[in-house]
Design a protein that fits this description.
Blueprint (H helix, E strand, L loop, with lengths): L10 H7 L6 H14 L15 H10 L4 E4 L6 H7 L7 E5 L14 H10 L5 E5 L4 E5 L6 H4 L1 E3 L1 H5 L10 E3 L1 H4 L3 E6 L6 H4 L3 H5 L2 E2 L8 E2 L2 E7 L12 H6 L2 E4 L6 H11 L8 E2 L3 H16 L11 H22 L3 E2 L9 H5 L12 H21 L5 H6 L7 E4 L4 H9 L2 H11 L4 H17 L4 E5 L2 E5 L4
Parallel strand pairs: 1-10, 1-11, 4-7, 7-10, 12-13
Antiparallel strand pairs: 2-3, 5-6, 8-9, 14-16, 15-16
Helix pairs in contact: 12-13, 12-14, 13-14, 13-16, 16-20, 18-20, 19-20
Amino acid sequence: MTSTSPRPRTLGELRDYGYQPLSVRDEMRRNLEARLRAGRSLTSAVRGYDATVLPQLETALLAGHDVILLGERGQAKTRLIRALVELLDDWIPIVAGSPVRDDPLRPVSVFARDLLAEHGEDTPVEWVPRSARFAEKLATPDTSMADLIGDIDPIKVAGGLYLDDPRALSFGLVPKSHRGIFAINELPDLAERIQVGLLNVLEERDVQIRTHLVRLEVDVVVVATANPEDYTNRGRLITPLKDRFGSQIRTHYPFEISTEIEIMREEASVETAGMTLEMPWFIEDVIARTSHVARASQAVSQRSGVSVRLSIANYETVVASATRRALRHGEESVVPRMSDLVAMVQSTQGKIEFDTLDEDDAERVIPALIALATRQSFAEHVVLERAGEIVAAFDGEVVVEVGEDVATHEYTATLEVMPALREAAERLANSTSPGLLAAATEFILEGLYVTKRLGKDTSGTAALYRSRSR
């Protein structure tokens, strides 16, 4: 209900208001139908799913299904689930004080029924926002039945209630999610005996607590997530529970480099000490492409996946490296370069797993992934009309030094004596900004190196580009 008029505060006022009970599935279906008629998708909170995951999820919700999202880590499964709250009404009425958000016209708990019997049309009504109608639980092996369904509350028993009194019960997350969404992440990690406790929730739509003859009819949409690897490693999803989910939807990593770049820009948290950030497009491309290359690499364990969080962390690290250099040299803007990509080793090695047990994998594989991403980006985007002149400029003893700590003005001096390189850098950067020209210079030189037209000697974060004949 979204009316701006004063909300009813009693059951009688609610009836006069014209309120009609609606199941949470019908509520979400109605709001989703309105979105689709207006040409809007389910959510704009995730990118790269418009033609794949979102249509499947919309279909599942229109069908009234409980859903399990299956995918590797870092595929926005949790974000997608949280976005479902947008399909709930802004506010709903409940019996005041109800532990399970009882509908005043369809009470399910003993508390609400007793209150209605006592006060009738004067039963107090409260209004709950949609943000409060979402509960989320991370499944862990120590999760108990009491956590999810409920148990006898010893404090209530000590207060004088009998063990078999329904009022002695303390409800778990599922009953407390009545008239809302219950999300459970990493479902296979839940002990099998606890998974059994969810069978009735998903099929009969009720909960049973210990030996109590209580049948609490819960109106809840259950959405779960799981990693495919967990089906056979840390735990497994029991067949009867898997069968009760109406839809299973496979998520994925971004298919396009451009999508990964958009996610990086939106999600990365960068601080440039008050200086302007000028991010070269080719640096963004290499950062995003490194994650894509890692997802196809035989040296990287694909069972655990390569999260989009890797791209975000690498973006933040590269900007931080460029900020450090700008601060040290008193520069006015922050412009990341290829030499800043060396810092990606520290933000990458904790986010990918390797298929070998070699302790030097991080120091060996990660630079190789960055080099492959650079070669692909260079080959796809850069055409050097005067490549021969640039390479010829390195004949003899000519070398060009680059590095994380080389000041921008030093690149300007290099370009003055290499006109072909300057022309290429200006075209690539589409700018005459000294910082962007320095970044473009490094990208061109590195591209010529990875395509085996220049030689390179490295020492830490510094590098010397030279003729291959030396």
